[in-house]
Write a structure and sequence with these properties.
There is one protein chain. The chain has 238 residues and is of the alpha/beta class. It contains six helices and 15 strands. The longest helix has 18 residues. The radius of gyration is 19 Å and the shape is elongated. The mean pLDDT is 89.
Length: 238
């Protein structure tokens, strides 16, 4: 089930968005409505509930949508945050909390439907599973938990949220099995999750957490083209 939260201090906006969502065919979905950022954060802290998608009004009294998003991001790096705003100038203030999309008020049915359909598809991709084997033990990791793969001779190291594991495989075979919409090879020894990329330089990338990895000349164009396509899909430009 996909869990969605609406947070806006204007109850008429909440009701309008909620009515539109229930008219859409988005599959198995639950929905909760909050009248302020403080109310949402209190609920999350009390229940330890986490949502897959947050629709946040930016301009809320006391605790703004940006402040609320910063708290959400500390608790959940994978949440999809959609900002709802009447003022486009806020767009440049919120990238540190990694928003998924923006919606302009008054929210229109078609625009909301496109954003939510894309969000659901993004969650589906991120929930894909990578399977591997260590000895006789079969293991699996969700794509969203993997930061990057590192080739080391006849072995591959998987660097993930839970730590690093190593198993026998060629990194070239790993590259053939991954979803190219999410992962890109940057070096003969490295494949990265594009969701984790924070900075691309001429000969290196910086990932979330400050990890820096080399980019070989052979893969510079592949990286740039793949990342541009990823950002276009992420931002809804294709």
């Amino acid at each position: 089930m996909i869990k969605l939260a609406i947070c806006d201090d204007d109850i008429s906006v909440c009701n309008s968005i909620e009515d539109m969502i229930w008219k859409m065919e988005l599959g198995n979905l639950s929905l909760d409505v909050f009248g302020s950022g403080a109310e949402l954060m209190d609920y999350m802290n009390t229940t330890e509930e986490r949502f897959n998608i947050y629709l946040l009004d930016i301009e809320m009294p006391h605790t703004s949508g940006i402040e609320t998003a910063a708290c959400i991001r500390k608790a959940d790096r994978d949440a999809l945050i959609v900002f709802v705003t009447s003022h486009k100038e806020y767009v440049y203030e919120v990238f540190k909390v990694l928003p998924f999309r923006f919606l302009c008020k008054p929210v229109q049915f078609d625009a909301l439907k496109v954003v939510l359909q894309d969000a659901v598809e993004h969650i589906r991709r991120e929930n894909q599973i990578f399977f591997f084997q260590i000895g006789h033990e079969k293991r699996q990791l969700p794509y969203r938990e993997i930061s990057y793969f590192e080739g080391a001779g006849r072995k591959v190291r998987i660097h993930s949220i839970g730590g690093t594991v190593e198993y026998y495989e060629r990194i070239s075979k790993v590259a053939d099995t991954l979803d190219a919409n999410l992962f890109t090879q940057i070096h003969a020894s490295y494949i990265v999750n594009m969701e984790c990329i924070r900075v691309i330089r001429q000969d290196e990338v910086e990932l979330a957490g400050g990890v820096e990895l080399p980019v070989s000349r052979k893969y510079q164009i592949v990286l740039k083209q793949g990342h541009i396509s990823f950002l276009k899909r992420r931002g809804g430009f294709q």
